[in-house]
Design a protein that fits this description.
Blueprint: H1 8-39, H2 42-68, H3 83-112, H4 119-147, H5 150-179, H6 184-211, H7 217-232, E1 237-245, E2 250-258, H8 264-282, E3 286-294, H9 298-301
Parallel strand pairs: 2-3
Antiparallel strand pairs: 1-2
Length: 309
């Protein structure tokens, strides 16, 4: 079974979504640095710095998305979708760098002293970015889940991280404005940095698992359920299940055990139906390979006595 690449229409939808994310990210940078210029807020500066990192990460993600949409070729017979995991790892690493910068800037500004101005307008501008990024992040995660795109889901996670960062800034500035205590500004920035670190770690973990072909327990459970159902009703056996994520789909291998007198054409037709049942559950980009063998003890089935030439 050859890999099923997204249709041109599906690819166009994904690319448009990433371009929208990039355009919004650039606009957010301008707004946040404008708010920092008005207020002098450490939290806003930290938020703006995280957004700059986000824009670079989106640029790499857009490149990765274009590459992942290329069809399989001689050098990449399984396609190019593994770039999803590189993209998620890159984005996670960039998020962690932003968090470390926020830690440094918040503590150093706290020690130097804090002078805040125009807090009301700064809160208003930052609150606007919360709404925009919240809507965009949810849209990207929904679209990424629907289309099986880890790149979009990772980018949506980063956008929502940016949203939470900005929300923390709004809370910090509001507390500073109402209490007159400016320490709320760097304190909330530090809490925001912790949240960003957790998000970045999650993306790095996802990237590592995908690149190391770590089996997903939930996918394993679904495959076992499908195979048990499909083989039981046909009086077959199965074993040696293997599966891994390909970035936007799955690679699945399983051995099917037939009665020794089963016609090879009939056995092949049954195996094809089981493959179709798996793809119906896991999506059309699931690459299912079945190995047909007779119902014998495993050592006999895999080391048969061959007739002499």
């Amino acid at each position: 079974m050859n890999p099923v690449t997204p249709t041109p229409e599906q690819g166009a939808v994904l690319v448009r979504a990433m371009r929208l994310s990039l355009a919004v990210g650039v606009a957010m940078v301008a707004i946040k640095f404008g708010a920092f210029g008005l207020t002098g807020s450490t939290a806003i500066l930290s938020d703006a710095a995280e957004t700059v990192v986000h824009v670079f990460a989106v640029g790499f993600a857009l490149f990765s998305l274009h590459l992942s949409l290329k069809p399989p070729d001689r050098d990449h017979p399984y396609g190019h979708a593994k770039i999803h995991y590189f993209s998620a790892g890159f984005e996670g690493g960039m998020i962690i760098l932003a968090a470390l910068f926020i830690f440094y800037e918040s503590i150093s500004r706290w020690m130097r002293g804090i002078d805040l101005e125009n807090l009301g307008f700064g809160v208003l501008l930052t609150a606007a970015t919360v709404v925009v990024n919240g809507v965009l992040g949810l849209y990207l995660k929904h679209l990424g889940k629907r289309e099986g795109s880890l790149i979009l889901r990772a980018n949506g996670t980063h956008v929502l991280t940016d949203c939470w960062t900005s929300l923390g800034v709004v809370v910090g500035l509001s507390l500073a404005a109402f209490t007159g205590q400016t320490f709320w500004d760097p304190l909330l920035a530090i809490f925001v940095a912790v949240n960003i670190l957790i998000s970045g770690y999650g993306l790095l973990k996802t990237s590592f698992r995908g690149l190391m072909d770590q089996a997903d327990p939930s996918v394993e459970a679904r495959l076992v359920s499908i195979l048990d159902r499909e083989t039981t009703k046909r009086d077959l056996g199965w074993h040696k299940l293997r599966h891994r994520s390909l970035g936007d789909g799955y690679g699945i291998e399983v051995h099917l055990q037939f009665d020794a007198d089963k016609n090879i054409d009939d056995a092949h037709a049954i195996a094809s139906r089981i493959e179709q049942a798996i793809r119906a559950q896991l999506g059309p980009r699931a690459i299912v390979t079945t190995h047909l063998e007779p119902k014998k003890p495993e050592k006999d089935a895999h080391a048969p006595k061959l007739p002499p030439d």
